[in-house]
Amino acid sequence: MPAGKYWKPEIETLPRAELEALQLSSLRDELDHAYANSPYYRRSFDAAGLKPEDVRSLSDIVKFPFIDKKTQRDAQGVGSFLGELAAVPEEEVVFVSTSSGSTGVPTMSPFTKKDFDEFQDVESRWFWQASMRPNDRYVHALNFSLYVGGPDVIGAQNLGALCIWGGTLPSERLIFVLKAYQPTCIWTSPSYAWYLGETCVKNGVDPRKDLSIKKIFVAGEMGGSIGATRKAIEDLWGAELFDFYGLSDIFGACAAQCEVHDGLHIAEDHILVETVDLDTGEVIEPGKRGELVYTTLRKKARPMIRFRTGDIGWIDYTPCPCGRTHGRIHVDGRKDDMFIVSAVNVYPSDIEYVIRGLTEVTGEYKIRIYERDFTCKFEVTVENAGGKSDDEVASRVSDALRARIGVKPAKVVVLPDGSIERSTHKAKRIVDERTHTAAK
Description:
By secondary structure, the protein is α/β, with parallel strands linked by helices. It is built from 11 helices and 19 strands. Helix 2 (16-37) packs across helix 3 (39-47), helix 9 (227-237) packs across helix 10 and helix 10 (348-356) crosses helix 11.
């Protein structure tokens, strides 16, 4: 058990030159393994006239073809249960998760025993980074049903914390657990952290005084990295919030915030990160916003070579005050969620930033996107927190959105407090009524 600031200081603080040398060695091994054992990758590399030995530097990864969610769906179940992307026989797989299927057919993610153990070691790293220690009590309030984040509780157990496998308990039951067992840490989604805190207050429980939660981990939505949302949740609970980020395509939490809260350190000993232009797919320099592309460096069950995540963001390699040398990703949202109004790229995360920062509204919201006269429009629905008229609230929201994102909504709908249905887990805040999505 580590005694200091870092879970594995020899990895987390590795000088950049040494970290990149480790990445190159791991990348060559991963490409060798994929080419030798995956029918899809052998066919793909051959079609591109490439061999694993063509990689002599990390930048050579750009020679290789992209894959995406469609690739996974097309290859899934072809030739075998695991499909053509898999690079091990089924007998070596000990765990599979699936994606939510929110943007199409759910995709399966297999793990060998070594994959799974290394996955959980990374989770321990993130928990330790977020100041969890063996004397903590931890409630894992995430879905265990096929969700890749479910097993992350094992990373907390391996760290030595007392773990309560809460799963998707009804809110009243979870509040009982929080009162009875007085855990110090909880992991859920930003929407549910807010909803659960509100529910506590409505039931006469003050999260700041009556409960012992000091650390909240969130994932699955943008809120944890939006300053106004994080502050609102922290103020409600009297706890520090840490944003985690993962993909079922890779493993649970692939990146997490440290105490600095400026981006999320990504496990660069496991994942090679590129950022590409949203339209051309050309690699752009670090620090520029584009689509994040990941290549696994150690996963054997199903290597992911140049996987286009659909997440929009950038990576920051500047030194972090925490002393960790692994780059920090900043994720603005999903490529599928971005929309264009009057030639302005609008990200739902920017809308949330504004809504969460206004005292005139409760913080709950919905976004409706639609077409009128062949033009993309959007409206925002909010709840009046009281104290001002609906017209005043609508004007305040509209002006604040225009100041933040450069365009204002076609309409702001103001409803009474409690009118917008609260999410008990991952919130669905966007209603897209457009008949086509060419503008995306």
